[in-house]
Structures are given as C-alpha cells and as structure tokens.
TrEMBL record:
<keyword id="KW-0132">Cell division</keyword>
<keyword id="KW-0472">Membrane</keyword>
<dbReference type="GO" id="GO:0009898">
    <property type="term" value="C:cytoplasmic side of plasma membrane"/>
</dbReference>
<dbReference type="Pfam" id="PF02491">
    <property type="entry name" value="SHS2_FTSA"/>
</dbReference>
<protein>
    <recommendedName>
        <fullName>Cell division protein FtsA</fullName>
    </recommendedName>
</protein>
<keyword id="KW-0131">Cell cycle</keyword>
<comment type="subunit">
    <text>Self-interacts. Interacts with FtsZ.</text>
</comment>
<keyword id="KW-1003">Cell membrane</keyword>
<dbReference type="GO" id="GO:0043093">
    <property type="term" value="P:FtsZ-dependent cytokinesis"/>
</dbReference>
<dbReference type="InterPro" id="IPR043129">
    <property type="entry name" value="ATPase_NBD"/>
</dbReference>
<dbReference type="InterPro" id="IPR003494">
    <property type="entry name" value="SHS2_FtsA"/>
</dbReference>
<dbReference type="GO" id="GO:0032153">
    <property type="term" value="C:cell division site"/>
</dbReference>
<feature type="domain" description="SHS2">
    <location>
        <begin position="24"/>
        <end position="224"/>
    </location>
</feature>
<dbReference type="InterPro" id="IPR020823">
    <property type="entry name" value="Cell_div_FtsA"/>
</dbReference>
<comment type="similarity">
    <text>Belongs to the FtsA/MreB family.</text>
</comment>
<dbReference type="Pfam" id="PF14450">
    <property type="entry name" value="FtsA"/>
</dbReference>
<dbReference type="InterPro" id="IPR050696">
    <property type="entry name" value="FtsA/MreB"/>
</dbReference>
Amino acid sequence: MTDLYQAQRAMRNMRRAAMQRGVIAILDIGTSKIACLILRFDGVDSFGDDTVGPMAGQSSFRVIGAATTRSRGVRFGEIAVMAETERAVRTAVQAAQKMANVRVDHVIACFSGAEPRSYGLAGEIDLEDSVVTEQDVARVLSACDMPDIGQDREVLHAQPVNFALDHRSGLGDPRGQIGNRLATDMHLLSIDGNVVQNILHCIQRCDLELAGMASSAYVSGISALVEDEQELGAACIEMGGGSTGISVFMKKHMIFADAVRMGGDHVTSDISKGLMVPMAVAERIKTKHGGVQATGMDDREMIEVGGDSGDWEKDRRQVSRAELIGIMRPRVEEILEEVRARLDAAGFDSLPSQQIVLTGGASQIPGLDGLASRILGQRVRLGRPLRVQGLPQAATGAAFSSTVGLCLFAAHPQDEWWDFEIPAERYPARSLKRVVKWFKDNW
C-alpha cells in the first residue's frame, strides 16, 4: 500500500514536470482500438477554482497529434499478449509523434477492465487550531479507515468527495475556514494489481514513462456528462469493445465505479457464430445494418452476407435484418441487465437526479437508447465527448469519450489522497463503509 502511495505521488510529480515542459501523450488502451493523442500545454496556473490540493492546477492545452490503431493482444480491457500490445502501442505513439513533429517521453494511460471495486470511507479529526490548514486536510484523509481491499489489489483513485466542518457539510474546500471538528468522505477505487503491472511493463518496453493512470469509466464520465449532470447525480455507461464501464458522479466527484466484462465485441462474436461468417464480416454487418429495435420493414430488408470462401452459393447468402436484430438484441439486453444490477447494488436510485448517459463505441447501435431506458428504467441519453481544441473530426465520436476525458483529467486533475503530505504513521488498515452513505447523510 505504501509503495503504491509513493508510486502515485511520483507519477503526479512527473506529470507536473511534463506539463511544464509543454507536451505529454495520452494513451487509451482499449480492447478494440488503441488511441494516442499528444497535448501541448500553454501554461499551468497555480490553483483551480473548485479543487482542493496542490495538484489542482488548471491549464489550457490543444491536441497537436492524434493516431489510432487496431488493438491487439487486449481482452476484456486487460493485456493478454504483451508483445502484440507493445507493437500496437508503439504504432499509435509513433504515428501521433510524427503528426505532432515532437518526441514525447511521458504518457498518461487509461484502461477498462481490471475488476474495479468501490469503497466509501469516512474519517474525522479534532482541529488543533481553529483554522483549517492543508496539514489538517492531510490528517483527516489519513484518519479514514482503510478497508481490506484484498490480496494483489491496488488503489487506483482515492478522492475526497465531501468535507464537513462541525455541523456544515457539503464543503468542496475547507481550507481557511474556522471550526472545531473536520470530517471527510472519501471514494476509493481498487483494481487488480497484476493488470496495472502489465500496463506499466508494456509502456516501459515502449521506452516511455508512465506519468499517470485512470479508469476509463471515470474519464468517460468527465468528458460525456455535462456540468449539471455531474453536480446533481448521473451515471455514465461506457460500452467499449471488451467491457462496459459504469461510473456514478455526484457533486462533480465519482462516487462509484464498476465494470461488466461484456461489450461490443461480444455482440460481433454472436453475429459471427449465428451467421457463420468471419469476425471482420460480422463487424461490418453490425456497423452497417445492426440495430436492436425490429420494425415491420425488417423482414423484407435483406442483407448481403458476402464472404470469400470460394463457394459461390455460400458467398451469395442473404439474411433479413430481422434475423440480425434477433441475434444482437439478447446480448445487448444481457449487458444492460448486468449494468442495472450493478447500479441497483450501488444505491443509484437514491440520487436526486437519475440521468444515465451511454457512451463508448458500442453505444452507437441504432435504437440502443430506447432499449436502455426500458431496461434501466431511467432517463437515458447518448453522450458525446466535450469538444477539445485541436481534436481531429474523426476523434469526436462517442468511441473517443475516454480518450478526450483523459485529456481533461491530465489538464485539470482532481485532488487525490497522494496530493497531501499524509503523516507516515497514519497508513490506515481497517473497515469498510457504504459508497453512498455520505450522500444520504448530506441530503
């Protein structure tokens, strides 16, 4: 635990140094594509508006290089074949560097999968002086009871989501305010440590330094949710190729994250098996003709399956669109049912606003928003990433939500546990609290 704390702190310092030098690379390691963007920073201001710690620097940036390549060696958002993934990462980074005409040494990476688990932590202290200082914030964060996250698991995000000073709760930044007792609620996200080690090793093999890591469910939420959704409570469902990430935001902080090990590639696989065609043909059919809502016309709309088996009759086969929808819909329903189970377990129905935003490449299946609103029982909209200066048109779709979110995460980092000088003797190791407990107490 102490090792990871130091590693995260070192990464934050590395990120700041890279930003001051002017360029940093963004790497989105997905199951279906690997995207690399190169950012140029114009300057870092000393403090942001609504963030707490020393890392809270706002900075303006523009994208000067962008490249994507087909992902290889990645399954369920986790590296399965190291050499293949290394080659794909090298391809994407080199193409982006060529476009930007600059060399980068530091990358910030995001990934899905890794079995994320959320914990809600609470801690409180008596103030030595009546005015809250940064050291008091560090002490109250270290006073949180650390849950037993399990063997071989590591903490990816540890963010204070709420502060309370005496009877006043819902404070974003308590420093400089006067009171006697300071309390905090913290959201902690743990992941499988081996997945992180594999990503770290892969990036080092590409002669790059890792300057930060994030969960793609978290960064997708940053880019796809508008400000009032992040404030009032909303869930971002990032439907990727190999896994579907879930993140719940409240008061501009992530308070829950999870992942379902199914995504768009599983729909493609079902088409491939159902129609007995190669995966590449199944992907083309899904993209051009796919859907989940059947109409009366679909029985008459015939799709040319195509193929190159050499058997003329087999290669000229046709299927109706209704048959294709019949193959796709059960798998999409299964993914959404699993998402609903995870949201129910997190207590999502207790939030005041229950907006759900679908993003990621697989969210572009026609009719998905209507099916999702019926299964999830909430208002559902399709999300697109926020516009980022210099981003090429090809990278503005829903499939690039996590990539754009990672740019915003790099430029406007939220405070985390490692941004404060926490006393060394206060590495906590005890209990577990409910994720949305702090929310229920404060509303």
